[in-house]
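User: My advisor, Dr. K., asked me to get a structural model of this assembly before our group meeting. I'm new to this, so sorry if the format is off. These are the inputs:
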Amino acid sequence: MMMLLVFASQFYVSVTIAHISESEASLTLTSAEGAVGSAYQAVVRAEEAGANVSGLLVRLNGAGELLAKAKVAYRCENFDEVVRSACLSFEIAESVKNEADELRVEAYGSRVAGFWFSLTGSLIGVVAVGFGSFRGWHFFKRRYYKRVFGMKLEVRPDES
Amino acid sequence: MNLEEYRTVFAAGSLVMMLIVAAPTLGLIVPFPREMERFSEFWVLGPNHRAEDYPLNVRVNESYSVFVGVSNHLVSSSYYLIYVKFRNQTQPLPNVIASEPSPLPPLYEFRALVANDGTWEAPLKFRVLEVSYNDDSMFIDRLSINDVVFVVNASARWDLEYKGFYFQLFLELWLHDVASQSFRFHNRFVGIWLNMTT
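Assistant: The format is fine. Below is the predicted structure of the whole assembly, which you can bring to the meeting.
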């Protein structure tokens, strides 16, 4: 991807020097299209990992708009505009992709930490409930026997 | 109640309490499938953001505008491509039954990345720049969409039933497929009829 960026940047610089050929414009357009697609995939993966990707989506939308502009310019054979828009789109998409990858790793880390925290809490809770129930049952049983054995037999005279 | 029955009640109560305490972790381990309907909404609104006042009788060199919108209910963020195409009454529309887009080449396009349950909307301004007549036919040579000029070379014959030269500006919705890394027709299209008047 870095190589493509360098390659595309050369076209971008050359805009000011000379007109761009159709094949050069096409190549830059393909690179930008691939970059936006990869960035979208990275954003979806980060979203699946539980990251907040709303900011990235806004920026990627900007890259998408520029890519659409480049595609329209290509159909109109305005190759200078193709390269200008496609290169900007490529740069935004690449930075979004890198940030999405970082966010995914962060989100995954906090998800794992959250899982262990929850698991530890649940285990402690289950053991505490089990121990409490066991002690409670023995306390209850003692009181029950005390109550039963403490009973006195009462003999009533036959009233008949 | 005898002691055996008390023991059963105690054991059941303890088990319920244990399940309540373990519920947050169980929720992370056991997947609970949520059945949700997945779909995308696609629309064109008139110049006042309402489903009314759509441009119909169109004049040369006059500017008209509508709004294109997409709403994503596909459970995750989606990457949409919207093709703007132009046709006369005899040229093909997309085939929704066969899930095939129109074979006509796109003129303009929009790309939108929409969050789950999010909405995207953009203006679509158009202007017919150049027309010519020949007997009972009208030719539209150039059309401007969002200030980009396209050579369309579209023709329409006089419609005896509806009394006009009818063209259609229609939009197709495509969706990016992560697995194949390409866009596929999302089986949705909308359009507005335009009657070219002098």
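One thing worth pointing out at the meeting: DSSP finds four helices and no strands in chain A.

User: Perfect, thanks a lot.
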